[in-house]
Design a protein that fits this description.
Its EC number is 5.4.2.3. The protein is an alpha/beta fold and 560 residues long. It is built from 18 helices and 19 strands. 41% of the residues lie in helices and 18% in strands.
Length: 560
């Protein structure tokens, strides 16, 4: 590191002293905390993003959002060149950087890291970092801190993309590094044109009942509602009404949004008896989660939830159907053949009924530990990998190899069998690969894919929701002295330590029809999370309570 660069770091970092007594950790959602203490952290993530751009010689993204958290919180995370999350092996450095106590220590850490990673700080190769924020008022001053961080590295250029959804920024980073147009307008054009293509390819004669022609969307009073208002003007054949768009004076994520709807299973603000039987959907604060719901004809404020597991099932049915049509008359030994490896990826939190249903369809289902980074990585190993969490975060990934084959096959079919069922199936799969956001879960692209598939199937939301009946479940938290005492295996479904606890859990689980239970340490607090499932709600509650008592006996404050 030359003297000019060293002095620039010392000078700029002196304006962003870290908050006293606060230690932050970079996780799946980046850094997240009360916005008032984040300025120093965001400045340092600006440095991190610029270093990542220099290391990869690619465009990197920096997003300021706290997703479904309350409006007083904010956060910051980095998008890698693929549009995915920051590489996990850079997370420890992110933590060290954020928690450095003074400018001199910060400069020493950076000097040590760039030497280890062989990063040159001479400004010879300029790099770009795309910045965006959600609608939180605190986003504006935090964005300035990020710009200062990026600007403290000679040759790093910050490009402010304005207010965006998190998935939009991830999409732009992926597109820029893929050498294609990557403005917000390009994003909207790609979504609307691929949606139109899928709708145009719907079999003639399929249409849902008239009540089902309308979609009402809860925008969580966040950026997703704003963007959907723009996107809906570009769509034909879909009537969308956006509520809680943020313009009506509502508060971000307060009594609204996918997280609230999925956890509380009640109608969000501004929904009620006027929406009985209508297809409704809810986005979260930064529009990377999506759930659907129906307001039933009872007088209570409860809803029938159609969660991420059901969205996954819908996508899986459609993809499987198109692949089977495409492969109907293919000789797999011939050059036009391709044995597409389709995989479904879930975590242990997926409802057992959804896993059973997917396996009954003959689909390959695998499990990963909890967290999008694990799901995404596993799904990327398939030709087509579909992953979703029950909370509504998920997407579909297509391998480059499969897409190359699919494009060639589509061209071949358009020459010899244009308009055939096989040709249409190939076109549908290509359209799905364009519509879905392959960088990250995206509620806007997800909602359009759900709508296109429901139209294709001729299904109402009620028909979709009847694919299988969710098993009743219960989640509990148990405070413990040391959460690290629990070590799990088999995608967090088995507790390896402390010795004897898994056998005790198995004995409790065996007492209940269709019982399933697992424990795992929280990633953020000294608690052990308990998940239980059984054939009735009472049984699920009892199983969760009995296993929570076991955790307390083995690890709780009474055991120490």
């Amino acid at each position: 590191m030359n003297e000019d660069q060293r002095l620039l770091f010392l000078s700029s970092s002196s304006h962003f002293p870290p908050p006293q007594g606060v230690k932050l950790s970079y996780g799946t959602s980046g850094f997240r905390a009360d916005a008032s203490i984040l300025q120093s952290t965001v400045y340092r993530v600006g440095i991190l993003a610029a270093l990542r751009a220099l290391k990869t010689q690619s465009v990197i993204g920096l997003m300021i959002t706290a997703s479904h958290n309350e409006v007083s919180d904010n956060g910051v995370k980095v998008a890698d060149p693929s549009g995915g999350m920051l590489s996990q092996d850079w997370e420890p450095f992110a933590d060290t950087l954020a928690n450095a106590r003074h400018p001199q220590h910060l400069v020493e850490l950076i000097a040590e890291f760039v030497q280890k990673e062989n990063i040159t700080l001479d400004g010879a190769k300029p790099v770009e970092i795309l910045l965006a924020r959600d609608t939180r008022p605190s986003g504006e001053f935090l964005l300035e801190a990020a710009k200062q961080g990026i600007g403290s590295i000679i040759g790093a250029v910050a490009l402010d993309m304005g207010i965006l959804t998190t998935p939009q920024l991830h999409w732009m980073v992926r597109a820029r590094n893929g050498g294609v147009k990557a403005s917000e307008t390009d994003y909207f054009k790609q979504l609307s044109s691929s949606f139109r293509c899928l709708v145009d390819l719907s079999p003639s004669g399929t249409h849902a009942n008239n009540v089902d022609d309308k979609l009402v969307v809860d925008g969580a009073n966040g950026v997703g509602g704003e963007k959907l208002e723009i996107l809906k003007t570009m769509l034909n054949g879909l009537a969308i009404e956006v509520r809680n768009s943020g313009k009506e004076g509502g508060v971000l994520n307060e009594g609204v949004g996918a997280d609230y709807v999925q956890k509380e299973k009640v109608v969000p603000f501004s929904f009620g008896s006027q929406d009985i039987g209508i297809r409704c959907a809810s986005l979260d604060g930064d529009a990377d989660r999506l759930v659907y719901f129906v307001v039933p004809s009872t007088s209570s404020n409860k809803i029938e939830l159609v969660d991420g597991d059901k969205i996954l099932s819908l996508f899986a049915i459609f993809i499987k159907e198109q692949l089977s049509i495409l492969n109907k008359e293919i000789d797999v030994k011939a050059k036009n053949g391709y044995q597409c490896h389709l995989g479904i990826v879930q975590t242990a939190y997926a409802n057992g009924a959804s896993t059973d249903y997917l396996k009954q369809l003959g689909l390959e289902v695998t499990f990963t530990p909890t967290g999008v980074k694990y799901l995404h990585e596993k799904a990327a190993g398939y030709d087509i990998g579909i992953y979703f969490e029950a909370n509504g975060h998920g997407t579909i990934l297509f391998s480059e190899q499969f897409l190359c084959w699919l494009k060639a096959r589509t061209t071949e079919l358009s020459a010899v069998a244009k308009g055939s069922e096989q040709h249409k199936a190939a076109l549908r799969l290509l359209a799905v690969s364009e519509l879905i956001n392959q960088a990250v879960g995206d509620a806007l692209s997800g909602v359009l894919l759900v709508e296109a598939i429901l139209k294709h199937m001729g299904w109402s939301i009620q028909r979709w929701n009847e694919l299988y009946l969710d098993l009743p479940s219960r989640q509990l938290k148990v405070k413990v002295v040391d959460r690290s005492a629990v070590v799990t295996a088999n995608a967090e479904t088995v507790a390896v330590t402390p010795p004897g606890i898994q056998e005790a859990i198995n004995a409790e689980t065996a007492k209940h029809l269709r019982g399933r239970c697992f424990i795992r340490p929280s990633g953020t607090e000294d608690v052990i999370r308990v998940y239980a499932e059984a054939s009735s709600q009472d049984a699920a509650d009892n199983l969760a309570q009995s296993v929570a008592k076991l955790v307390d006996q083995f690890l709780g404050f009474g055991s120490s």
